[in-house]
Amino acid sequence: MYVMEPFISEMEKPSELLINPYRHLHNVQYEILDWGQLLQLTEDCLQIEISQSGCDRINYATRQQAASEEWYNQRTGRIIASKFKQLPQLGATPDAIVHCTCCGKG
């Protein structure tokens, strides 16, 4: 038996393998902040980076989608395609006239 590189000390900790950085962003205390404080907090929170290996692990762990508990965990806090259509739409043209299928001309 022999030890092969990379050594375990150089590998990521198992508890950090599938962390969803967006899951813990909500805090009831944020409701009392003013607009400027919320903007600053947002800028600080959105400095989240996920490594390529982290993306690969999440991809592998969630391939079963709804059959995977991790799939639901990773969806928390994200705007996913099936929910994106529920967000308000802002449209603008040079003449400031907007037309959409749900609201018509306005």
Give a structural overview.
- This protein has 106 residues and is mainly alpha-helical.
- It has one domain.
- Helix content is 30%, strand content 4%.
- The protein is built from four helices and two strands, in the order ααααββ.
- It has helices spanning 35-45, 52-61, 69-75, 81-84; strands spanning 99-100, 104-105.
- The chain has a two-stranded antiparallel ribbon with strand order 1-2.
- It is extended.
- The mean pLDDT is 73.
Average pLDDT over all residues? 73
Strand order of the largest sheet: 1-2
- Determine the number of helices (DSSP H or I, runs of at least 4 residues): 4
General shape? extended
- DSSP summary, beta strand count: 2
The SS-based structural class is mainly alpha
Which bin fits the share of residues in helices? Answer: 25-40%
What is the radius of gyration? 21 Å
Distance between the first and last residues' Cα: 74 Å
Proportion of residues in extended strands: under 5%
Unreliable runs: none
Order of helices and strands: HHHHEE
Number of domains: 1
Biggest pleated-sheet summary:
2 strands, antiparallel
What key attributes describe this structure?
106 residues, mainly alpha, 30% helix
Structure in a nutshell:
The protein is 30% helix and 4% strand. It has 106 residues and is mostly helical. The protein has a two-stranded antiparallel ribbon with strand order 1-2.
Write the layout of secondary structure elements.
Blueprint: H1 35-45, H2 52-61, H3 69-75, H4 81-84, E1 99-100, E2 104-105
